[in-house]
Structure to design on (245 residues):
């Protein structure tokens, strides 16, 4: 087995399901004007992509870049999984920095360009930013980006902070993104807020007391998923009161 992009592509092709490609295209919204417009799929399941990534865990960085240049979604996902798993195994600061910078460059190049590519990877890679000078400036810059996927990366990067109980940074980025026009961002923000609530429900309630009435309904619904029915109704009522006032 050669450690090159061509071998990865061949291994992924063995799992392809041509009869399911149309379903993938619909699910990932690849039609004209949709967020995944033009993306190409070969219908490989994520666990199968992960198994291929595991086989090629030592793939050279330049071969990962070849995968990331591919129009095929699963090729890019596999490249990102390899990079992310390498980040988790990295033993030195220099190695972690190199991998993080590689990931960020791929994001800036538009290669991380669908929600699953972000969500499977960014919460791991974001760990590099914790307690690092300039991290908040980078998160804010991503959150202000005109590019949807950079904004989603900003939010999902902060999940690494949530994982270690650092909640102020995620709440700050969530607040920045409350006015986003994209439903995919409303979902990401709500998801992040829900995870904050798992760590400190009072912090979430304090945030909701400020923003529940004005935040996007999708974000609100996601953020209160873990509350009991009575409390969910209370926060949704705040939203309704705003709408009728």
């Amino acid at each position: 087995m050669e450690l090159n992009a061509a071998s990865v592509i061949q291994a992924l092709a063995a799992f392809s399901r041509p009869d399911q490609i149309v379903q993938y295209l619909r699910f990932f919204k690849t039609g004209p004007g949709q967020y995944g417009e033009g993306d190409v799929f070969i219908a490989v399941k994520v666990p199968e992509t992960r198994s291929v990534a595991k086989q090629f865990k030592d793939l050279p960085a330049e071969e990962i870049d070849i995968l990331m240049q591919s129009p095929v979604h699963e090729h890019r996902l596999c490249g990102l999984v390899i990079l992310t798993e390498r980040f988790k195994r990295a033993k030195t600061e220099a190695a972690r920095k190199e991998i993080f910078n590689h990931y960020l460059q791929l994001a800036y190049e538009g290669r991380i360009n669908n929600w699953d590519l972000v969500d499977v990877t960014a919460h791991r890679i974001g760990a590099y930013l914790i307690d690092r000078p300039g991290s908040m400036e980078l998160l804010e810059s991503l959150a202000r980006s005109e590019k949807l996927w950079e904004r989603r990366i900003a939010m999902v990067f902060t999940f690494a902070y949530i994982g270690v109980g650092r909640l102020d940074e995620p709440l700050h980025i969530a607040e920045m993104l409350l006015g986003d026009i994209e439903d995919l961002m409303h979902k990401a923000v709500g998801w992040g807020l829900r995870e904050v609530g798992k760590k400190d429900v009072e912090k979430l309630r304090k945030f909701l007391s400020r923003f529940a009435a004005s935040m996007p309904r999708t974000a609100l619904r996601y953020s209160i998923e873990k509350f009991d029915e009575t409390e969910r109704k209370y926060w949704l009522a705040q939203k309704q009161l705003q709408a009728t006032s």
Remarks:
- The domain at 129-244 is CATH 1.25.10.90 (Leucine-rich Repeat Variant).
- The chain has a mean pLDDT of 96.
- The chain has 16 helices and no strands.
